[in-house]
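Bench log. Compound arrived from synthesis this morning; before running ITC I wanted a structural hypothesis for how nicotinamide-adenine-dinucleotide sits in the protein. Inputs:
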Amino acid sequence: MAERVAIVTGGLRGLGQAMALGLAAAGHRVLAVGHIADDVEPMRIAAHDRGIPESALLPAVADIRDPEACTALVDRACNRLGGIHILVNNAGLTFTTISPDKFRRPSPQSFWECGDTLVQSVMDTNFTAADRMARRVAPLLLAQGWGRIVNVTTKLDTMNRPGSSPYGPSKAALEMATEIRAKELDGTGVTANIVNPGAGANTPGMAEEWRTGSRNGSMPPLLEPDEMVAPLLFVVSDAAGGINGFRFDANTWDRASPPELAARRNGRPAGFVLHDAAPWDAVPARAG
Ligand SMILES: NC(=O)c1ccc[n+]([C@@H]2O[C@H](COP(=O)([O-])OP(=O)(O)OC[C@H]3O[C@@H](n4cnc5c(N)ncnc54)[C@H](O)[C@@H]3O)[C@@H](O)[C@H]2O)c1
């Protein structure tokens, strides 16, 4: 695999840390960005434990809700690591931020209970910052005729589930943006795809109740973050140059098969299945 430069947002812990380490272990140079300074040292230790040289993995603390911080990150990748080829838009505010007491309440948070600050912050992080990072790097990727934009969204039934606001809408926007980008990038050597866990994952962004429950068997098992690496490495490889506008789920990725075969079995078009809406009188009335 050719050595390339990647930015992984949210790359200091959880799924992003696993993907940043996985890219670096595969020979890429990685700028791993998070907004929590305390995550830097554990990331350095994790990289050291895996034998990843300091020159291959650069941790950075930045708030990607800030447009200037995004510009500075792209400049840093270019100046310190020698370019930019891969963008993994993984940073996100999850349900632990949005509804910390979700597992203790009788029902999930309703949309009208979400305050302006929360909604703005989630949309800014999960959608606007990812969109901004893609807009910052796309001209550079297009100029070199090679690039990979990888977004992390979520399961479709998490996006539209009651109680998912504002998380679901923010991820739905990123999902649809991926489909649009893929169409606009078609034939340029730059691709836009999605790599998702496909299931709840064992990260700090997951409710502690579920993490504990999955360990003691009282809750469904969680995906381990390292499982994200195999589909990611395929999507960013040269072999995946023709793979554009797809979503891959780590939990159903067949690691025993060659990556091309695993991808063919696993991939689904990014975005939503569009169909002609049923006439209004064919839709069952909802109590209102
Ligand atoms: N954990 C799951 O079960 C799960 C399932 C589906 C999708 N996802 C998505 O995967 C991604 C990673 O999830 P996770 O569970 O690893 O989360 P996490 O909370 O463990 O880590 C999130 C990372 O994003 C970073 N981040 C958040 N806001 C930021 C900001 N303003 N600027 C810079 N960095 C910022 C954090 O610093 C952290 O490094 C998220 O987008 C999440 O929505 C997670």
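What the model suggests: DSSP finds ten helices and eight strands in the chain. The radius of gyration is 19 Å.
ITC booked for Thursday regardless.
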